Amino acid sequence: MKTERIRGFFKGVKDSFLVGSINPLRFQLAASQDISNYPNFYLICKIKHEAHLLDKAVKNPYSPGRATARKEYLAALLNELDKRNLDFIEVSNWAYEILGKYDIWTKEKTSQMLLGDDVFKALPELAVPSIRFWKEGTPPESQIIECINSGQMASASCNRQAFLIKVVANDNQNFDGEGARNASMFAAAPYRVFIYYNVNNYSEKYAAMIDIGMFAQNFVLKAKNLGLGTCCCYASEHLDHGQAYWKKKLDLSNEYYCGLTILVGIPKEVVNKPPRIETKKIVEFIRA
Ligand SMILES: Cc1cc2nc3c(=O)[nH]c(=O)nc-3n(C[C@H](O)[C@H](O)[C@H](O)COP(=O)(O)O)c2cc1C
Question: I need a surface site. Which of 24, 27, 195, 279 has the fewest CB within 10 A?
Fold first, then answer.
C-alpha cells in the first residue's frame, strides 16, 4: 500500500498540474489509503465508481489482462463492505453482478452488452441511460434542434444562457472495434454535440458548469422522449483532442470553453440502469 500511495501521490501531482486543480491529487490520496481506513460513504461511492468502470470495460472487445487490476480492487472493496456489515445491498448486489460479468467476459471473450430494440423499457420517467452502441443511421437534424431547444428551456444562472452549440455530424459511422471507450463511441455515433459557454459572461467559479449540466439534462430527457440514445461525455481535459484543437476546428475564439459533449444516435443497446443508493440513506431533515 505504501508504494501505491507514493505512486498515487505522483500521479495526483502530475494530473493536478495538467488540469490546474487540486482535485486529482485529492482523489489519488483518498484512494491510496488502506481500504480499511476508507470512510463508509466514500467506500460505497467508490464501489459504484469502480463497478461502473468495470461494467464499461467488459463492453469492449476482450483483451488479456485488461481491467484485471480494477476487478481485483472492486473485489477488495466489496470484501471490506461485507466485513463492515453495512446495509447497502442495492449497491453490492449490482457490483457482484458486474464481477460475474467480468468472469464471463474472460471466459467467453466476447463483449458483455445487451443489444436490442426495446432500449428504454421499464425505465422510470426521469431515468436516462447512457447509450454506447449505435445503429447505423442518422436521426434528422430537426430532432437535434428540438433537443437543443429543450436545453435552452432549462434554468440558467441569472438567465445568461451564454451557450453556443456546435454539432459535428459523422457521415462515416465506423463500427470497427465497437465498444464503450470514448474513441470508439465517437467513431460510431452519428452526432456529437459540443456545448460551449462564453467564459467572459461568468465571474463565478461553478455557475457555468451548473448551467451546462441543467441544459444537458433537458437535452437528454428530450432525446429519450424522441427515442434517441445519448451519452454525455466529458469535455475539456478529457476530450479526444483537447480544447485548443476543437476550438480551431470549429472556428471559435478563446472566449469559448466546451463544458460537455453529448453523443446522439439511434440506440441499439439495452442498458441496465445502475442502482441508486436507497434515497433515505442520503437524506437528513434538520429542524430549524
Ligand atoms: C459530466 C458527465 C460526463 C460523462 N462522461 C462520460 C464519458 O466520458 N464517457 C462515457 O462513456 N460516459 C460518460 N458519462 C456517462 C456516465 O458515465 C453515466 O453512464 C451516465 O450518467 C448515465 O447514468 P447511468 O449509468 O446511471 O445510466 C458522463 C456523464 C456525465 C454526467
Answer: 279
